């Protein structure tokens, strides 16, 4: 496999991502973490169209090639219609294999990393109430709204966010949940996931200020670094807090393509 860009920071990102899904997936009703030689697959039947929750992380290309048929059966038997495989920046052979197997490139989030001692302050914005213990349903609802998904699309997939290691955050404006995120500790790395802002509350710097508060908490817990995968739209926000880009990840979808890919 072509040597990945980003080296140790990318290794940390993938290690923490794997630990995140290993804890999140089995904690949801019907969810599972399936460990095969050289790869891990995470299954969330409660959100069968959400490939971000039904995903595969692999170590060796040969293991992925051998397991593709079995993986398809695992997801089919679970009633999952959309699942995907993550690839690293600089990996040319994995995408080639997946494309030949009928997968489509669904998205290319930016891998990003931050030394928490280098965390920068966010810009100003309206005051908000910080809730450090919101119900997982609030995380679910805000992510559905932010992504333009129908209510219930994520089902009960976020139930596992109550498990130890996860830290849930919501910013409230005018008494209503307006933005959210989740962090997850693995070793001394803090992973950031499920960042979302209600469309009616956007352009108020809520996500950046909420994340800054969460990362200060992480630093107090002894975390030294943070990693995340950023959307195209979110990259500028994260760079403003000090995150550095490591290269674009690949999300290789098996299932009906979204409209922009069809």
Summarize this structure briefly:
By secondary structure, this protein is of the alpha+beta class. Helix content is 30%, strand content 29%.
Describe the structure.
Keywords: Transferase. This is GNAT superfamily N-acetyltransferase. InterPro entries: Acyl_CoA_acyltransferase, GNAT_dom. This protein has helices at residues 7-27, 61-77, 93-100, 136-146, 206-220, 235-241, and strands at residues 32-36, 39-43, 55-58, 83-87, 104-107, 110-115, 129-131, 166-173, 176-186, 189-197, 225-230, 244-248, 250-254. It is α+β, with helices and mostly antiparallel strands and 262 residues long. It has two domains: 7-110 and 249-261, no CATH class; 114-246, 3-Layer(aba) Sandwich (Aminopeptidase), CATH 3.40.630. The protein has a seven-stranded mixed sheet, with helices on both faces. It has a six-stranded mixed sheet with strand order 1-2-3-4-13-5. The chain is globular. It starts with 6 loop residues before the first helix and ends in an 8-residue tail after the last strand.
